[in-house]
Amino acid sequence: MIRLTTIAAATALSFAPTAHAQDTTPVQQLPTPQASEETKALDPAGFAQQAAASNEFEILSAELALRRSQDAEVRKFAETMLDDHRRAQQQLQTAAEADSVAMVTELSMEQKQTLTALEQAEESQFDSAYMSAQMKAHDQAIRLLGAYADNGAAGSLKTYAVANYPLVRTHKVRAQSQTSP
């Protein structure tokens, strides 16, 4: 499994609130989600489709958070997700084209249901529901990118997975620090 914990740890420390430093689990101690048989066997087209759906979910949920959240920190997090995942989606498109892979962007049923639940969440529950969805989405993205970085076919998509893995881990740490008391 790719170990880029030094970079991720340094980045994570820049996001960790100082008042909660003793409560924040260092990145190197976070469990690395294990790849499922499904993600281990992904072909380039399957990886591109799942990665595109992951980025699209992040973009749509961030746009929703910017419309609905009343919390400045949640809004700041959503702005970062919007910027980073739009950029990642463009990078993914370029990598897919370089590897001659058609990129289809279709959300999974689970992602669609999560967006619907976020849209329907009561105002007082939105921020916690959004951050909870972020934790889960980033866990899934970490597994996807890590598995493809380790086991994917050589090429631009694998380079994309390797390059974006630490960013997604940093997002997870940041989301985790926002949901911690």
Binned, the helix content reads over 70%
Q: Kindly state the number of beta strands.
A: 0
CATH superfamily: Ferritin, core subunit, four-helix bundle
H/E series: HHHHHHH
Query: Structural class of the helices, strands and pairings?
Result: mainly alpha
Query: Can you identify the CATH class?
Result: Mainly Alpha
Q: How is the biggest beta sheet arranged?
A: none
The third-level CATH topology is Ferritin
Shape: elongated
CATH architecture: Up-down Bundle
**pLDDT under 50 segments (min length 5)?**
1-39
Count of separate DSSP helical elements: 7
Mean pLDDT: 82
Output the radius of gyration: 16 Å
- Beta fraction: under 5%
State the distance separating the first and last CA atoms.
Answer: 31 Å
Indicate how many domains the architecture comprises.
1
Features:
7 helices, disordered N terminus, mainly alpha, 181 residues, elongated, Ferritin
Can you walk me through this structure?
There is one protein chain. The protein is about 75% helix and about 0% strand. It has a single domain (about 40-180), classed as Ferritin, core subunit, four-helix bundle (Ferritin), CATH 1.20.1260. The longest helix has 29 residues, at about 125-150. Residues about 1-40 have low confidence and may be disordered. It is an all-alpha fold. The chain starts with a helix and ends with a helix. The chain has 7 helices and no strands. α3 packs parallel to α5 and α6 (about 125-150) runs antiparallel to α7 (about 155-180). The radius of gyration is 16 Å and the shape is elongated.
Summarize this entry quickly.
With 181 residues, the chain is mainly alpha-helical. The chain has a single domain (39-179), classed as Up-down Bundle (Ferritin), CATH 1.20.1260. The chain has helices at 5-15, 37-40, 44-68, 72-98, 109-120, 123-151, 156-179.
